[in-house]
């Protein structure tokens, strides 16, 4: 039987990197004591008046420009009404028919995903469910500025959705719009998905709310695709509804039937004037936009010889990228510097801020064989955690490799004496026994022996000629 095709559109909420909230002067810092960052405005008390934060408009326009959107010269803030305990005003200030940005796109390789719109809005508070069954409300997040980025239904697989999300994150981080930390909720994703046979009309979509990691976005898409396909195969129909993804069971469950847009009773907020932006102001924002990931990736490939994949990972980590470029100027050990940065990004793609000095000296120790790749990685983590210099970290954690003939010879001799059976086996022609002997060297030195010299010494002590495995 032919397979259904999936059709995916994403709604991404991103917290803007401002110091104060969208309509008042309350701070936005993450993880403050509950209900310590609120005032009459963000609590929606009667008589309070919102004042739009200029920085919110600047950052939202940066987001629009960085995703190739048209920026509206004239837009407006609207009230979206609904009741929920985390929304003390019983309406959210958002944008409805005149969003700030529209008609953009994000390119990931060959794939282009259309951006329908980007609008600004305020976040709601947070409900905290205690183990004893109470529900507490933390209003600190009320009024934290958000943009919502709505994509066209252009994605056709979980992988394309993930690639779009990581490209979008890289762009927003590079443009200084947001830190986009999914684990802290500063980037959240709703997945809209439907299935159809290729070439058919769009099917009925469901929306899976509030996914908080890339992995869960992919899992939720696969699970919902399987569910909808099974419903249709069995002759049923897909209901338009909101669902949630349960990471434990890996399945989606219904939350509520989809509201129609007019249930929200949108109308222009009478307390806020419309937003009129001049051409000159928008062009100034365009000029202030730094280097975006695509351009940076190309530069990293051509100027430093990174592979495409490495370059896009580094381009998505702007601070690390800047520190890498500074370190490049300081050290001749450039191959080792690249390896150090590439391996860190492979372990953890998050942006980090090591001192350029530390990167340079770790690269030199790596190139000189003073550090193994693993040792350099440990020293880098220690430097990031404590701020100590690379040398201090290497010393404190005793990471320097044991290298050089003099230092390694007695160790190799001791290992051969203690592992007579392996040595005999090697001499009898089992070259694999050498792995066991190297393991013993590493165990004895807690992994710090410089492997090439250690292996050469073992071979030498076991007899010059390298025996061959019997056929
Ligand atoms: P709502 O607020 O009702 O969810 P939005 O316009 O904000 O509406 O978002 C709709 C999202 O759903 C967009 O990302 C859009 O690309 C996507 N979408 C619309 N129709 C379909 C469909 N048939 N299948 C999959 N995604 C769809
Ligand atoms: Mg939606
Ligand atoms: Zn406030």
From TrEMBL:
<dbReference type="InterPro" id="IPR006075">
    <property type="entry name" value="Asn/Gln-tRNA_Trfase_suB/E_cat"/>
</dbReference>
<keyword id="KW-0547">Nucleotide-binding</keyword>
<dbReference type="InterPro" id="IPR023168">
    <property type="entry name" value="GatB_Yqey_C_2"/>
</dbReference>
<dbReference type="InterPro" id="IPR014746">
    <property type="entry name" value="Gln_synth/guanido_kin_cat_dom"/>
</dbReference>
<dbReference type="InterPro" id="IPR003789">
    <property type="entry name" value="Asn/Gln_tRNA_amidoTrase-B-like"/>
</dbReference>
<keyword id="KW-0648">Protein biosynthesis</keyword>
<dbReference type="GO" id="GO:0006412">
    <property type="term" value="P:translation"/>
</dbReference>
<keyword id="KW-0436">Ligase</keyword>
<keyword id="KW-0067">ATP-binding</keyword>
<dbReference type="Pfam" id="PF02934">
    <property type="entry name" value="GatB_N"/>
</dbReference>
<dbReference type="Pfam" id="PF02637">
    <property type="entry name" value="GatB_Yqey"/>
</dbReference>
<protein>
    <recommendedName>
        <fullName>Aspartyl/glutamyl-tRNA(Asn/Gln) amidotransferase subunit B</fullName>
        <ecNumber>6.3.5.-</ecNumber>
    </recommendedName>
</protein>
<comment type="function">
    <text>Allows the formation of correctly charged Asn-tRNA(Asn) or Gln-tRNA(Gln) through the transamidation of misacylated Asp-tRNA(Asn) or Glu-tRNA(Gln) in organisms which lack either or both of asparaginyl-tRNA or glutaminyl-tRNA synthetases. The reaction takes place in the presence of glutamine and ATP through an activated phospho-Asp-tRNA(Asn) or phospho-Glu-tRNA(Gln).</text>
</comment>
<feature type="domain" description="Asn/Gln amidotransferase">
    <location>
        <begin position="322"/>
        <end position="462"/>
    </location>
</feature>
<dbReference type="InterPro" id="IPR018027">
    <property type="entry name" value="Asn/Gln_amidotransferase"/>
</dbReference>
<dbReference type="GO" id="GO:0050567">
    <property type="term" value="F:glutaminyl-tRNA synthase (glutamine-hydrolyzing) activity"/>
</dbReference>
<comment type="similarity">
    <text>Belongs to the GatB/GatE family. GatB subfamily.</text>
</comment>
<dbReference type="InterPro" id="IPR017959">
    <property type="entry name" value="Asn/Gln-tRNA_amidoTrfase_suB/E"/>
</dbReference>
<dbReference type="InterPro" id="IPR017958">
    <property type="entry name" value="Gln-tRNA_amidoTrfase_suB_CS"/>
</dbReference>
<dbReference type="GO" id="GO:0005524">
    <property type="term" value="F:ATP binding"/>
</dbReference>
<comment type="subunit">
    <text>Heterotrimer of A, B and C subunits.</text>
</comment>
<dbReference type="InterPro" id="IPR004413">
    <property type="entry name" value="GatB"/>
</dbReference>
């Amino acid at each position: 039987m032919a397979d259904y095709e999936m059709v995916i559109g994403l709604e991404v909420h991103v917290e803007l990197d401002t110091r104060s909230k969208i309509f008042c002067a309350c701070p936005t810092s993450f993880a403050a004591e509950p209900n310590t960052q609120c005032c009459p405005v963000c609590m929606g008390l009667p008589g309070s008046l919102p004042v739009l934060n200029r920085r919110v408009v600047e950052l939202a326009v940066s987001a629009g420009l960085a995703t190739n959107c048209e920026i509206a010269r004239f837009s407006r803030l609207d009230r979206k009404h609904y009741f929920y305990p985390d929304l003390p005003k019983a309406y959210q200030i958002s944008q409805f028919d005149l969003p700030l940005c529209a008609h953009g796109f994000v390119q990931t390789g060959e794939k282009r995903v259309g951006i329908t719109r980007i609008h600004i809005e305020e976040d709601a508070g947070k409900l905290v469910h205690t183990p004893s069954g109470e529900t507490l409300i933390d209003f600190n997040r009320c009024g934290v500025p958000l943009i919502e980025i709505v994509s066209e239904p252009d994605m056709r697989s979980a992988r394309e959705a993930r690639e779009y999300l990581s490209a979008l994150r890289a762009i927003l981080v590079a443009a200084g719009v947001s830190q986009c930390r999914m684990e802290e909720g500063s980037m959240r994703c709703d997945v809209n998905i439907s299935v159809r046979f290729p070439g058919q009309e769009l099917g009925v979509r469901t929306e899976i709310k509030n996914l908080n990691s890339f992995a869960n976005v992919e899992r939720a898409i696969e699970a919902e695709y399987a569910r909808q396909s099974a419903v249709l195969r069995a002759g049923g129909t897909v209901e338009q509804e909101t669902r949630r993804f349960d990471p434990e069971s890996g399945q989606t469950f219904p939350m509520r039937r989809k509201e129609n847009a007019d249930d929200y009773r949108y109308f222009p907020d009478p307390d806020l004037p419309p937003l009129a932006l001049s051409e000159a102001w928008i062009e100034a924002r365009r000029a202030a936009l730094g280097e975006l990931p695509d351009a940076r990736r190309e530069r990293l490939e051509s100027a430093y010889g990174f592979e495409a994949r490495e370059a896009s990972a580094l381009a998505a980590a702007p601070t690390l990228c800047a520190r890498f470029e500074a370190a490049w100027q300081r050290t001749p050990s450039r191959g080792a510097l690249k390896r150090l940065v590439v391996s860190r990004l492979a372990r953890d793609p998050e942006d980090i801020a090591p001192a350029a000095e530390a990167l340079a000296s770790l690269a030199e120790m790596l190139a000189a064989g003073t550090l193994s790749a693993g040792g350099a990685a440990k020293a880098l983590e220690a430097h990031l955690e404590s701020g100590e210099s690379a040398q201090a970290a290497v010393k404190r954690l005793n990471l320097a490799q044991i290298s050089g003939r003099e230092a390694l010879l007695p160790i190799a001799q001791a290992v051969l004496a203690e592992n007579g059976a392996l040595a005999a086996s090697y001499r009898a022609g089992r070259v694999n026994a050498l792995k066991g002997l190297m393991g013993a060297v590493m165990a004895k030195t807690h992994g710090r022996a410089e492997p090439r010299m250690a292996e050469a010494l073992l071979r030498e002590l076991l007899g010059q000629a390298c025996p061959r495995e019997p056929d």
